[in-house]
């Protein structure tokens, strides 16, 4: 029997019976051997995905972070002139603020797709959706800028037999194929690329230092005389503008938490350290060498300033070597964007924000080909849209500015997530415990740098807003499919003639069937207590954040305490209170642990990502990532 209500239908001519679900049931469940086998297999599979050590994990993001010197240095010197080393040094120091924040979040919630997954576990799905849109745009911009800069470097050294935009498309296509080989193999490729880059930059620094010692300080004095500001306020302005754009030299740092579940336990702090210290050295030392060896006029006219440095220091042979290295490492940045985006899309699929087809994989490599191809296509669209207005290759120095705001806003999501975690999930075990003032300082720093980037290039705000709006609309539509269908059903209701025409009279039933299909996927609420206020809060979360008409309240029987006395009665009350949701109560024999949760997921055909629980405390024996569940209440 379906639930009923005395509340009249919101529709004038059509029924709203579809809004009311069936009555819930109470079930005592004994998991079977096949369920336990499936649960153990799932846990084993999750453990086997943790394949990245500190160096392979560093390499995936390292090519984007350390390869950014090829486009960050020209951008910074264009606004900060001779004060560029100071600006870059200050910019790279800011990561000392972000590292403990990212480490604390990573220890609390080692789940792929961060910081989207962080926000999803500490706040609402709507805010997490916005974070996912920003993150997806950031990964796309990382790939686009890396690919376009690689082509720009190549075009600056040789005459290409094809238009430059074709080169960028080829780079994206080649590394799409590489990413389809699987994450472990891709990480090995990335490690080789990063190793070559670090060796190359070491050679360049040594060659530059030797040449500087030979020529003395005449060139740097001349550059200082030509580029110094006329007043203290002008010095501060140039240094600040350089600092704002100098954050481009850290692009890629935010990608590391996106694949944190693939990193071996305890390695994240080492990975962040491995990325940070080389970034300080490369950005600051290389910028000093450029100013000490290359005339300022030449620096400001050229984009390939590290190639110019190499030629001045050691000749055309080193210049060619630097150009080749630039192309290779920037292509590694493309790989970083693709793989990070795939981890995000996989998490969005598990959370039912995007269709399940995105999780389809190639059997041989286990690579998610739908996600890879979709992300590459989106990156191509971004490249085409900016190229139409900016002529990317000829104005490559300007292009990275268009994406700097994306990176800044994504970086702001980390302190925001930690702030919400401290207030909403404060009981969650984690280390280290970042001081509150550090979190606030990071949040305060972002709008300052954000405003500085807009002052340097106001068009950045337009590009940022345009791309973000498009992605948010797409994600919002996928998250609110049922609501959109209700609006369509309501519009159909307003035209009674459509209910009689031969070709349109069945539309109403088709819309209803589609809504019922979308709401058919059940979700689980894992509970330990029978307190109705806690149960009510969890049901409210599901109603507001999930498109479902079926909720299963699950309680694992504790041998010591048994079934809470009011649990069955309260489940019936909630079933009455929410007529649009069928609320079942399932009593499971067994203890609450990762294997039993995975076994239950197999038995009920509900993925662990759609199983919700209260925030665990310091005495909880398992990590949230081991369970695969989502935290929705304190």
Automatic annotation (TrEMBL):
Alphabetically ordered keywords of this record: Membrane, Transmembrane, Transmembrane helix
Gene Ontology terms, MF aspect: amino acid transmembrane transporter activity
Gene3D superfamilies: Amino acid/polyamine transporter I
Transmembrane regions listed in the UniProt entry: 51-73, 79-98, 127-153, 165-183, 190-213, 240-260, 280-300, 320-345, 366-385, 405-423, 435-455, 461-478
Keyword Nucleotide-binding attached: no
Superkingdom of this protein's organism: Eukaryota
Recorded topology in the membrane: Multi-pass membrane protein
Coiled-coil blocks: none
Locations listed in the record: Membrane
GO cellular component, one term: plasma membrane
Protein's UniProt name: AAAP amino acid permease
Organism of origin: Lentinula detonsa
